[in-house]
Amino acid sequence: MKAYGFIHTHSEYSLKDAPLKLADIVKEAKKMGATAIALTDHGTAAGWIEFYDLCKNEGIKPILGVEAYIRSETNSRTHLILLAKNYTGYKEISQAISDSNENIERIADMDIPIMTKEILQKYLHGDNVIVTSACVSGVLSEILLSRKKIQEQVDSIKKKMDDYYSPYDTGYLKNKELVSSLDTEIAKLTAKKEKLEIIAKRNFREQKKSLSIYKKEDLSLYEERKKQLEKEEQETKEAKKSVSEIKKQIQNKKRSRTLINGRCKDAEKKQQKYIEAEAEICKLTKKLTTEEGAIQKVKKEISWYTSFLGESFYIELQNHGLAEEAYVMPILASIAKEMKIPLVASNDVHILRKEDADIRQFIRSLRFKKYEEIGIADKELYMKDDKELSNALLKILPKDAVLKAMKGIKNICDSCNLVIPDTKHYPRYRDGNGNIVADSAALLRKKTLEGIPQRYPDGMDDERTKQMEYELNIIINMGYADYLLIVADYVNYAKEYSKKIGKGIGYGVGPGRGSGAGCIVNYLLGITDVEPVTYGLLFQRFLNPERVSMPDIDVDFSEEVREATIDYCRRKYGIISVAGIRTVGTQQGKMVVRNAARFLGWKYPDEKEKYQQLGSAIASAITSSVNKEIDEIRKEFSDSLSENILSIATRAEGIANSFGVHAAGVIIGDGQPLKEIIPLLYNTKKAQWVIQCDMNKGERMGCLKMDFLGLKNLDIMTNSIRLIYKRKGISIDLSNLPFEDVVFKEIFAKGNTGCVFQFESGGMKQMLVKFGPESFEDIILLVASYRPGPMQYIPDMIEIKHKRKKAEYIIPQLEDILGKTYGQCIYQEQLMDIFHKCAGFSLGKADLIRRFMSKKKEELFLKEKEPFLEGIIKKGASRKDAEKYWNELVEFAKYAFNKSHAAAYAVISYQTAYLKYHYPIEYMCGVLICAKIEKLPVYLYECKKCNVQVEAPDINLSEEDFFIKNNKIYFGLSKIKGVGEAGKIIIEERKNGKFVSFADFLLRVNIDIGK
Ligand SMILES: [Zn+2]
Ligand SMILES: [Zn+2]
């Protein structure tokens, strides 16, 4: 069970070819005592970083590599293994893989990146990458096999030619002669027959009549004529006989002619085939070299590789029992011996154990859309130990070659020593000219200070000034000055852009999102619109100096500006520095069940229908009760067909089957091309470059992720304020709205919150009426607490708010912290405050403990229990109360919500409520414009509820979209179900005059009604 190492391994990221999870590969390798293991997925490095970390954790050396697809001279797709020896090699392969994504071929619904020799030569320098000749589809095997394939084709054609006729065949020529001589004879006979027929057809009636006259008048003449007549009659009689004989002869000759001619025709067809086959052989033999010729070609190919790789080029030997391997591998081994090329043995690992071959076959069948039989070789693609591997090779190779190849494994494993450095690749801010700003810290300070007059027209107080200074220091010391400058830059670009396309009016960026709202510097830079000190939002929740953490500024954009803003970043930071993030789609739930049924249908075509019906039934059983355990479903469907489906589905669930693009995440690099840091993938569907690892691994590689999220409410509000400006000339600054009691009273407290952000649900509306929010703090509280979990505290809060119950605090300081949430601990910030103000912890430490509690790292937060109790007892609590309170906090911590996020979203809630209250017609028109057609009935009902009149569509009045006229909203033509784009055509034609009748409409507008 011992293996020194593995140099050729495929994971699930070899999409639809291998079912292996990275963790399982590493675990198995560890179990087998391997020192090193390579990951060589087909054309991709999607598993690299995850694999690297998993190996490091298990104490196995990771070798990062790829089995690239490479075009051969005969234009087939061959394989080549690249393995990184060190970090330079990592970067070389990373760039080569990225560039291969510029040559994507679409095969069996999959994107196949094609590596070229030019790419290899461009990036592989010196001694940093080991290249091996890969499998039986590899670069060298292909030359020998394509020759062999041609030879086999020639041989098979030659064999078929035995059945064909050569045009020079003597039998055919004789027959052909025979036919023509028969033709002559038939013609001759026919001519003769025709002549005789004339004689045979003669009749002698007239002559006999005149003979009787002669008898009376001239006897001598009579005698003469009589003799003459008798002679002629005799002749005719004989002619008749001859004609019938000749007819028979002709018939016989014709019969034999038909027979022989048929043989000739048949032969001619086979001759045609013969000629074609001759031409095909001629064509093939032109391509066909001798085996020796092919060997020379292989040697030439090897020399090409060694010319720039030297001893880093290996010939890889494999044997999985394929006839092709038995032919190719011994030849390659002897060439290696002759040319002194190092050998390496490998098994083409696609599965852990023999028994897993059926799951691999399942995913491969999905790829090729037909049942893929399990061949003998398919069962051999498992992780073999050294003994199994060398035994397999010995079946087809001489002992010395096998020994050398096994030693090759050790050589490669020992010479690959990749260490990925922990370098940060944080983006660098660039000025308007595209130059990196040297002193970004100074610039950040300058820009932050510049924001003061706008945010605090009356000047900033001491508390806030101190907070700003504190934050600036931490941000700068932790190295995030550039990051904040970049975010501020694109946020401001998006705001300007939104205004630009709306003739000065637009609201393209949300007030904030996530923990970023807790940072006053963000507020001063214009990244967020919530004043953090007022609402007790904590900076440490955003950036904790006691924890090396990535800050996370997520920004919401209107759809109108989102793409344009990402484009702006591409322009500014360079296409080589900006990329999206890869996601992975997996075999899941009902889909995998349906696929399993499909696969079994292919496997047992006779029972196809049965499987398919059953698959659908099981699939819907799973979806109808999402939490139903698979065991329960098993009980329900316990016949053997269902067993089969479920067995495959459960084992295949969770296996990767496609790569996608993260909806919002964007990486901006530090100026060094991203493809040197992480391999890039080109997603053809989205036409976008993405990093080949996921979000977390991207951050682990030192990159900063920025979220560009789309939020439709921003489009709604933008539409509304543009309409308000157009109709009333009022320009509304949404980022600076006054909090008005009347909005809280009329919209929120009355539950009048249809179309109000975050407050739309029926349950929420009922709760609002009971709660009766009166302030912005109340709105934040409800955004944070109306969720499963903290919802249970709401009835208590209502009681306390309406003074029907009194909140109890074990020490008075708690009232300051929990008063605004009516005695409950709802926010993470409150939890941190309790630790900080009541128990004397630093805010950074408090943030750490909060994280331990929410992540249920019990042993870590339990360590803090005693210090907490001591701290709070010092403030005056009894030990018993303190203990009890600790337990309560542990409970609260499970649900505690990020107040920064709640506050920023509560701003949007207030903004939408404000617009709805003051400008209902414009607001609802904005809602309708942005609505999906299927949601229109809900919004139309909401219009009715707030007395906004919506007119039915009018062919002569309605615009393409909803619009306002005479204080009414007119239905948009394109928003009528089924009309869509045709609305545009109608409006275009209407410019030529109103439609006067339906007939007029039909005649003037060319719309395909069938569509
Ligand atoms: Zn291969
Ligand atoms: Zn392979």
UniProtKB/TrEMBL annotation:
<dbReference type="Pfam" id="PF17657">
    <property type="entry name" value="DNA_pol3_finger"/>
</dbReference>
<dbReference type="InterPro" id="IPR016195">
    <property type="entry name" value="Pol/histidinol_Pase-like"/>
</dbReference>
<dbReference type="Pfam" id="PF14579">
    <property type="entry name" value="HHH_6"/>
</dbReference>
<protein>
    <recommendedName>
        <fullName>DNA-directed DNA polymerase</fullName>
        <ecNumber>2.7.7.7</ecNumber>
    </recommendedName>
</protein>
<keyword id="KW-0235">DNA replication</keyword>
<dbReference type="InterPro" id="IPR003141">
    <property type="entry name" value="Pol/His_phosphatase_N"/>
</dbReference>
<dbReference type="InterPro" id="IPR004013">
    <property type="entry name" value="PHP_dom"/>
</dbReference>
<dbReference type="InterPro" id="IPR029460">
    <property type="entry name" value="DNAPol_HHH"/>
</dbReference>
<keyword id="KW-0548">Nucleotidyltransferase</keyword>
<feature type="domain" description="Polymerase/histidinol phosphatase N-terminal">
    <location>
        <begin position="5"/>
        <end position="72"/>
    </location>
</feature>
<dbReference type="GO" id="GO:0008408">
    <property type="term" value="F:3'-5' exonuclease activity"/>
</dbReference>
<feature type="coiled-coil region">
    <location>
        <begin position="179"/>
        <end position="249"/>
    </location>
</feature>
<keyword id="KW-0808">Transferase</keyword>
<dbReference type="Pfam" id="PF07733">
    <property type="entry name" value="DNA_pol3_alpha"/>
</dbReference>
<dbReference type="InterPro" id="IPR004805">
    <property type="entry name" value="DnaE2/DnaE/PolC"/>
</dbReference>
<dbReference type="GO" id="GO:0003887">
    <property type="term" value="F:DNA-directed DNA polymerase activity"/>
</dbReference>
<keyword id="KW-0175">Coiled coil</keyword>
<dbReference type="InterPro" id="IPR011708">
    <property type="entry name" value="DNA_pol3_alpha_NTPase_dom"/>
</dbReference>
<dbReference type="Pfam" id="PF02811">
    <property type="entry name" value="PHP"/>
</dbReference>
<dbReference type="GO" id="GO:0006260">
    <property type="term" value="P:DNA replication"/>
</dbReference>
<dbReference type="InterPro" id="IPR040982">
    <property type="entry name" value="DNA_pol3_finger"/>
</dbReference>
<keyword id="KW-0239">DNA-directed DNA polymerase</keyword>
